[in-house]
Specification:
With 329 residues, the protein is of the alpha+beta class. It has helices spanning 11-19, 58-61, 94-107, 114-121, 167-174, 212-220, 226-229, 277-289, 306-310, 318-325; strands at 2-7, 23-29, 35-39, 65-72, 76-78, 87-92, 123-128, 151-155, 159-164, 181-184, 237-243, 249-256. The structure holds iron/sulfur cluster (2 copies).
């Protein structure tokens, strides 16, 4: 069967073509050896061998800290205006694409978040197949989240098999047909089917709050929150308001919050929904493997492995999940 093929030799031309109409970002290895999503310029090519970036692409959609509302005595309440020029994200692995699918469900459902919606509609997503390492769990995640992309590239020996997944992708591909050739080779395996999308058979039993594992993990957890910061589907935020000293203006900001932090469940007067680390650890587990809010009942771990590489205590939830989620994994 014929596939659409882009040779490695055409990669620079492909990126240059996309740069004519938008900024292009992808995984870039810095001088410190850390791979991050950053601008791909003519002298900065994507690191195609990187299994994961330090932070997931959520940083483009949900900024770590941002103003979401302004007030002034003259103008009243105003939503912040932000230019959202087109941005291509190149080289997104299936787990990160599924992570964006999760954020879409949260921020574009009943009442779309205006900042998220504007940024999302300016994004073109170009996926890239990858080979999981020992930290990944995408191949046995029970999340039904799909890896949605405008274009998806599957790495082959000398280039990529390319396919479109949206109208935007079809148009993008049509504009670069001179870089694409048809090849008669076996259709490569689609790594986007890693997710166990058919295994959510029934609601799992409730998890015991007194399970000894919560305390065992909590005894080792440092409460640093790194696992949540680097997670492509963690999207908790805090909302703070600051009034100016003249009393005539104020801003409301939101910033990433972290369920491993003591302050996450603290209320005025010092009360807390989750007083100890074991409760906080259980809460994170439930959110990753059982979902909540718009994702209720939908596991949101997409198996990127970032939490395991980031954890200074070397904690790994996979063995616990295998035991508690049983055949759903
Ligand atoms: S829980 Fe860990 S492995 Fe799962 S999506 Fe989040 S960071 Fe990735
Ligand atoms: S990264 Fe590890 S030590 Fe830090 S909060 Fe997460 S589980 Fe705890």
């Amino acid at each position: 069967m014929a596939i659409q093929f882009i040779a490695y030799g055409n990669l620079e031309a492909l990126l240059e073509r996309m740069r004519r109409s938008s900024e292009v970002h992808g995984p870039v290895c810095g001088d410190d050896g850390v791979v991050r999503f950053a601008a791909l310029t003519p002298d900065k090519l994507p690191d195609l061998s990187a299994v994961r970036t330090l932070l997931p692409p959520k940083k483009y959609l949900l900024h770590p800290q941002e103003t979401i509302l302004k007030y002034s005595a003259g103008a009243g309440y105003q939503l912040p205006e932000e230019p959202c020029p087109p941005l291509v994200l190149f080289g997104l692995h299936p787990c990160d694409l599924a992570g964006i699918n999760c954020l879409d469900r949260i921020f574009l459902s009943d009442v779309p978040d205006p900042l998220y919606a504007a940024r999302r509609s300016a994004l073109t997503l170009i996926g890239l197949s990858c080979t999981p390492d020992e930290f990944c769990s995408c191949h046995n995640c029970c999340s039904p989240l799909k890896a949605l992309s405008d274009l998806f590239l599957v790495s082959l020996d000398n280039g990529f098999a390319v396919s479109s997944g949206s109208r935007r992708g079809v148009e993008l591909l049509a504009a670069m047909m001179d870089l694409v050739e048809e090849q008669e080779i076996p259709v490569p395996e689609d790594t986007r089917s890693f997710f166990g999308q058919d295994v959510l058979k029934q609601a799992p039993p409730e998890l015991d709050v007194d399970l000894p594992e919560w305390q065992e993990f909590a005894d080792h957890c440092l409460g640093c929150g790194a696992c949540s910061i680097c997670c492509p589907t963690c999207s908790c935020f805090d909302v703070l308001e600051f009034g100016a000293l003249d009393g005539n203006s104020a801003i409301r900001i939101r910033q990433w919050d972290n369920c491993l932090f003591k302050s996450h469940a603290q209320l005025a007067g010092g009360a807390s929904f989750r007083k100890n680390r074991a409760e906080r650890f259980r809460y994170r587990y439930l959110h990753k493997y059982r979902g909540f809010g718009p994702m209720s009942g939908i596991p949101t771990c997409v198996g990127c492995g970032r939490c395991r590489t980031a954890c200074p205590a070397g904690l790994d939830l996979r063995p616990l999940a295998e035991r508690l989620e049983g055949e759903r994994l």
